[in-house]
Amino acid sequence: MTQKKVGVRQCTSYLLEEKLAVVKYAQENERNAAKHAGTPGRKAFYPEAEKFLYNWIIEQRKKGFAVNYISMRLQMCKILKEPVIQALYPAGEYKFQGNLSWINSFMKRFSLSLRRRTKISQKLPEDIEQKLDEF
Known about the structure:
The protein contains eight helices and no strands. The chain is mainly alpha-helical.
């Protein structure tokens, strides 16, 4: 009876030149930049459709509307149904999942956040200067 080795991970070895290049890069730039060099993150499955979605989000924010995860997902589904986008991504309408990890990746790719003030909630009265003086 033989036992299986569970969770055995091979060590990765690097050449001296590679190590020196990383150290040099870290000295010239930030220390953490050397760790993330060459790893831009996950690429988009539907880059052209995501550009349309980004433009839609910016448009909604300019109008003062709040944009949440659900509205982003629904709008992306609408965009994937458009004929222009279906020509680029024929199966995109059916394969698109729009889960939380996609939304977070999309927002990171376009430097978006949900916690942005879209409008001022309370307007100040016109005669505020006079009221302050009286106070």
